[in-house]
Amino acid sequence: MALTDPIKIGVLFSETGVTSAIGRSQLQGTLLAVHEINDAGGIDGRELVPVYADPASDPARYATLAERMIARDHVNTIFGCYMSSSRKAVIPVIEKWNKLLFYPTLYEGFEFSNNVIYTGAAPNQNSVQLAEFMTENFGARVYLVGSDYIYPYESNRIMADLVLQHAHSAKLGEVYVKLDASEQDFAPIIADIKSRQPDFIFSTVVGDATARLYRMYAQAGLDPRTMPIASLTTSEAEIAQMGAAASAGHFTSAPYFQAIDSELNRQCLARYRHHFGDHSTPNLCWESAYFQVHLYANAFRQAGDDALDILLPHLLGSEFSAPQGRVKIDPANHHAWLYPRVGRVDAQGQFTIVREAKRAVQPDPYLVTHTLSDWTGKLERLEV
Predict the structure, then answer these.
(1) Topology of 124-255+340-381 in CATH?
(2) CA-CA distances (angstroms) from residue 187 to 86, 177, 181, 182, 298?
(3) Domain residues of the chain, as ranges?
(4) Which of 151, 158, 73, 86 is nearest to 116 (CA)?
């Protein structure tokens, strides 16, 4: 390969299927970073060229397309996956070929692969903060609702463990729905919630079904001031689908919201809108999809190659000023240091940040040392 040849990267995000709203935003976050890198002269003069395929929200298709990108298109690095089921389908392919996957999505933790860089939040960077905030402000009686796959099951287990550390705590329900659940699928669940009156609802529903859950909640006349929905996955993208009327007053914990008050974030959003208009909605997964490409490009400049064994030493420990703040890849576990925040949806369908970490938080994907009490002194408290 000549030193002036383009550098090909695999890009696997779903523009169709039940998770297309987030997948499309992750694709555009990736492409925005590629535009910026190429506009600045590429990687030492070499153009960065995305090899893209749409897995249509199907985990098996993710694996097939990943193998095709590696074997046919000769890519060493793939940026992709939203649901944990898609990541788990791709990892065996990546490991077999000894390639690298950048995964830009919050997930359930309890995983490590030498072939994966995890740039979304681990449970100690979102679940812990959400549990602390909700139990302090609303109580510790929780009702768990999730989509029927691995991430919701594991995230609900973690949330229940955290909440049940409190006195007067209880898990009042735990139910799961199919990925393409209809509004009617949520009707008996909302009725049960109305009957049991939890202090808050923890939602790990993902994709298009998220909007249906929130709409059924609103139609039932439930009040977010006294019994809100709290989530790790309900972002600006899902709110754009359901509208502000259905989402106002509910909470999400994430490292990134559009509302972050920094010049760097505002400039990044302006560049996004210049390139893509309003065809997608920036959100937590968009932001991690964006900054991970820059981390890769910076490491490539130092390594001169993206073969795994050559690139990885330059990637581990590397840092980048992302819209959420200065992030870093932890060399011990391949996860990112991130900035936990809690946001409440306002009447315009945007988040008001009601709590945020003062500094980047080290990832602890196995929850070895983190409990609710760890966060009391580490959060910058804002008016709720």
Answers:
(1) Rossmann fold (3.40.50)
(2) 29, 11, 11, 9, 49
(3) 7-121+260-337, 124-255+340-381
(4) 86
Topology agreement, domain 7-121+260-337 and domain 124-255+340-381: yes
What are the E-state strand segments in 47-185? 48-53, 77-80, 100-103, 116-118, 141-147, 170-177
Locus of tokens 């073969």: 307
Chain segment 314-372, per-residue pLDDT in tens: 999 999 999 999 999 999 999 999 999 999 999 999 999 999 998 999 999 999 876 55
Is 99:83 a contact under the CB 8 Å cutoff? Answer: no
Rounded to the nearest angstrom, the gap between the alpha carbon of residue 360 and the centroid of all alpha carbons in its chain is 16
18: β partners: none
Token output for 282: 């920036």
Give the DSSP H or E segment for 353.
strand 351-357
- Number of C-beta neighbours around residue 240 at 10 A: 18
Do the Cβ atoms of 186 and 229 come closer than 8 Å?
no
- The answer to whether 24 and 208 are in contact (CB under 8 A) is no
Domain 7-121+260-337 fold:
Rossmann fold (3.40.50)
Is 198 in a helix, a strand, or coil? coil
Six token digits for residue 348 = 């315009």
